[in-house]
Design goal:
CATH topology: 2,3-Dihydroxybiphenyl 1,2-Dioxygenase, domain 1
Number of domains: 1
Number of helices: 7
Number of strands: 16
Shape: globular
Distance between the termini: 51 Å
CATH class: Alpha Beta
Strand order of the largest sheet: 2-3-4-1-13-16-15-14
CATH superfamily: 2,3-Dihydroxybiphenyl 1,2-Dioxygenase, domain 1
Largest sheet: 8 strands, mixed
């Protein structure tokens, strides 16, 4: 932040993270049947309507718990590197990593050694399509509402509580750090090796970004196993407009407000090139579906309803019941 500049309005933390998957059934099987998340919305990519958009979250589909995917089976794998969002970390309750290590191993997921980052235990691994994931043991997620999912294969005491953090490899961190500070209100929390942690609010789970400095890193590319964008929370439309003004003052070029029906979005690329979104908490996933039956049928935004027949014909068949038992079949 520049001298004499008023402290920026801070976003509330991570709203959702969207990544690119391969086969849609494999994606569904893993996140429902192994990770124990609920499919809270089965929809389409609003810019590419012959592609699914899956939303996985806690039992209530609360903001801050939501990892979403565009399944593009024909896309080449990502290239890991700078300027593309990296590892997605979930938070789980203290004492859960032993259970998760055994569960993932039984599910034929290769896990890395448990690490310690900023005083917390972290279990890194990858999903079936190469997305870097981790689970972080922490009690610090006070700003996020969590609803347990009764049909999850993961016991309630070990269920994922929220999105915890996301990493971004950069060749030069200064421009990205300055933009994230001035545009979104992130502040420095400390360093561990080449990892610089930024946070907002109480800097709890779901309110963190890790900038990973690697001057020699090749430029990363989108592909299967890549994070497409990271969305940050604001409570309402008015706050979103205020944050968009901050984005402009920080030198960013925003998309303007786009109505995604379940929330409203503003997109911008931070200086290294990673795609960011600012998303409102509401109106939420219950606006067009009974909360008891979220994700059970294909839901289209109203402006696509007249194309439903063609869209359904273009989308591959998927089986949610198969996904719910995927973990028990491994």
């Amino acid at each position: 932040m520049k001298q004499n500049e008023v402290a920026p309005l801070a976003v509330g933390g991570i709203h959702h993270i969207t990544a690119i998957a391969g086969d849609p059934q494999e994606n569904l099987d893993f996140y429902v049947g192994v990770m124990g998340l609920r499919l809270v919305k089965r929809s389409i990519n609003q810019d590419v309507p012959d592609t699914y958009h899956f939303f996985f979250a806690d039992g209530g589909g609360n903001p801050g718990t939501d990892l979403t995917f565009f399944p593009w089976p024909s896309m080449a794998p990502r290239r890991e590197g700078a300027s593309v969002w990296g590892e997605v970390s979930f938070v789980v309750p203290p004492g859960s990593l032993e259970w998760w290590t055994n569960h993932l191993t039984r599910s034929r997921v290769r896990v890395d050694e448990i690490q310690e980052r900023f005083g917390e235990k972290v279990l890194p691994f990858r999903d079936p399509h190469g997305l870097n994931l981790s689970l972080t043991e922490t009690e610090t997620y006070p700003d996020f509402v969590f609803d347990s999912w009764g049909e999850s294969p993961v016991p309630g005491e070990h269920q994922i509580r929220a999105l915890g953090s996301v990493s971004l490899t950069v060749r030069d961190e200064e421009a990205s750090r300055e933009f994230l500070s001035r545009a979104l209100g992130f502040r420095s929390l400390g360093r561990q090796g080449n990892r610089h942690r930024l946070g907002v609010g109480e800097a709890a789970g779901g309110q963190r970004i890790d900038l990973v400095l690697d001057p020699q890193a090749p430029r990363g590319t989108w592909g299967t196993g890549a994070v497409h964008h990271v969305a940050f929370r604001v409570p309402d439309d008015q706050t979103e407009l205020l944050v968009e003004q901050q984005i402009h003052r920080a030198g960013g070029q925003s998309s303007g407000v786009i109505d995604r029906f379940w929330f409203k979005s503003v997109y911008v690329r931070e200086p290294s090139g990673a795609l960011c979104e600012v998303a409102t908490d509401g109106p939420g996933f219950g606006v067009d579906e009974d909360m008891e039956h979220l994700g059970e049928t294909l839901i289209l935004p109203p402006w696509y309803e007249d194309q439903r027949g063609a869209i359904e014909q273009a989308l591959p068949a998927i089986d949610l019941e198969q996904a719910r038992t995927a973990g028990s079949r491994t």
